[in-house]
Amino acid sequence: MPTPSPLLLSLLLSLGAGAAEPPSETSEPPPIEVVRITRDFGKPYYDLALDAFTEPGAARVDDVRLHWVNTSAGDRRKPLGPLTERLVKVNLRRESDRAVTVTITGDRKEFAFALELQDDGALDVYVAAVAEDGQAIPRCRAAKVRLIARRVLGIAAGIDRITVECADTSGRRQPATIEYREL
Questions:
Q1: How far from the centroid of its chain's Cα atoms is residue 23's Cα?
Q2: What is the distance between the alpha carbons of residues 97 and 137, in angstroms, rounded to a whole number?
Q3: Is residue 35 a contact partner of residue 141, using CB atoms and an 8 Å limit?
Q4: Can you say how many angstroms the Cα of residue 14 is from the centroid of all Cα atoms in its chain?
Q5: 78, 21 in Cβ contact below 8 A?
Q6: Rounded to whole angstroms, how far apart are CA atoms 93 and 78?
Q7: Which of 31, 37, 48, 56 is the most exposed place for a label (fewest CB within 10 A)?
Q8: What proportions of the chain, in percent to the nearest 5, are helix, strand and coil?
Q9: Percent of the chain surpassing pLDDT 90
Q10: pLDDT tens figures, 32-73
Q11: Shortest CA distance to 82 belongs to which of 161, 145, 4?
Q12: 159-169 burial string, b = 16+ CB within 10 Å, else e?
């Protein structure tokens, strides 16, 4: 299958296009937002979110999904649509019952998010990042995440980088850029 155009990827991510309506009846637990991903392009009332599914009090993360979040409709979730799923790949690798690594691939870049269920039931996400001063932070607990578009003539044409406000192992919060693997 040919590599999708970065411009098409950018267009779909900017529009929230192809988002499918979730099923109305479900037996799974409600999603728990682990991290919200804002964007510097597209409809301002659509964000992305990494959501985990786990029963309250459980010691296992059952599933993790990337959803569209409509902030103008009470943070209503929508799964990515089929066309967007062809351009943005989300893969899960279970490290243990309490830890899942999520890789998000698009525009020939792969970003990794390590999701961990803490003993108190909280869900944290960790990334490898580079601080503004150039210092590598191999394990940084993510708080605010923002997708920054690569632009051509001022038009969003792919993914440039993902910025993050995160806390290093000493607890110091700082702005950084998530490291990625070039594909």
A1: 22
A2: 25
A3: no
A4: 15
A5: yes
A6: 23
A7: 56
A8: 10, 55, 35
A9: 66
A10: 999 999 999 889 999 999 999 998 778 899 999 999 999 999
A11: 4
A12: bbbbbbbbbbe
